[in-house]
Amino acid sequence: MKKESAYQEVKNARSKEKISIKEIIQGISPNFFELHGDKIEADDKTLIGGIGKIGDLPITIIAIQKGNDLEQNIEYNFGSARPQGYRKALRLMEQAEKFNRPILTLINTPGAWPDVESEYHGQGSAIAECIVQGLGVHVPYISIIVGEGGSGGALALACGDRVFMFKNSFYSVVSPEGYASIIWKDSSKVSQAAEELNLTPGKLLKDGIIDKVLSNYKNSDDLKELKDFLIKEFSDLKEMPVDKLMENRRNRFRKF
């Protein structure tokens, strides 16, 4: 079988046929209860978060979602969270630590929303606070990149003890289109940009940026495998002393 190009893998990650974040949450935690608001300004629907159970394990789930059609994408800001969303994530991380609940983050975003209003309302600081909190939280933390993993908008939720990617996904400091425009002033070189960015799961696994490439789950019927996998991973992390958990997480990210 012919190996797909890096840019084809990018297109696969953006496919409208990809399983939605809400389907994943419902499949692994049917009793999920959504929480809203950042305690300061508003609720950003792009970032969905709340509490539930995976098996018998109480858990906090935080995710960035895209829509399945144009109407939903407008509602969810095409998967680009605003500062209110990242502050909601920060609130939920703090709450998870308070009640000793492990954290699962699910990521599908081209990046944080880059408009002037978001910058005015503290986009950069909200992302930075999520990264700091994620690196320092005293509970097990797993991050999964489901589709797009774009820039700091993805990194804000990708500081877990374990970081996994679905097979059809990518993770990059900038989109291939953005890279081509910045480096060559020529967006037509997007395929070359995708190759140079080393953004595919296989290359990121080889470099140690992620810990495992997961199956390309297509519908809710496939999710029992993911649920069982997460139960095992969280069980392993919960058995680890907190000091060791923190040390391993920090050492993991210091390598980069």
From TrEMBL:
**Which biological processes are named by the entry's GO terms?**
fatty acid biosynthetic process; malonyl-CoA biosynthetic process
In terms of InterPro entries, this protein maps to:
Acetyl_CoA_COase_a_su, ClpP/crotonase-like_dom_sf, COA_CT_C
**What SUPFAM superfamilies does the entry give?**
ClpP/crotonase
Pathway per its UniProt entry is:
Lipid metabolism; malonyl-CoA biosynthesis; malonyl-CoA from acetyl-CoA: step 1/1
Q: Which UniProt keywords apply?
A: ATP-binding, Fatty acid biosynthesis, Fatty acid metabolism, Lipid biosynthesis, Lipid metabolism, Nucleotide-binding, Transferase
Residue ranges constituting the CoA carboxyltransferase C-terminal domain according to the UniProt record:
1-236
Coiled-coil boundaries: none
Which class of enzymes does this protein belong to?
transferase
Q: Enumerate the GO terms in the molecular function aspect.
A: acetyl-CoA carboxylase activity; ATP binding; carboxyl- or carbamoyltransferase activity
Q: Which reaction does it catalyse?
A: N(6)-carboxybiotinyl-L-lysyl-[protein] + acetyl-CoA = N(6)-biotinyl-L-lysyl-[protein] + malonyl-CoA
Cellular component, GO, one term: acetyl-CoA carboxylase complex
Domain of life from the UniProt record: Bacteria
PROSITE patterns recorded: COA_CT_CTER (PS50989)
EC number(s) for this protein? 2.1.3.15
Gene3D superfamilies in the record: 2-enoyl-CoA Hydratase, Chain A, domain 1
> What name is this protein filed under?
acetyl-CoA carboxytransferase
Species source reads Companilactobacillus nuruki
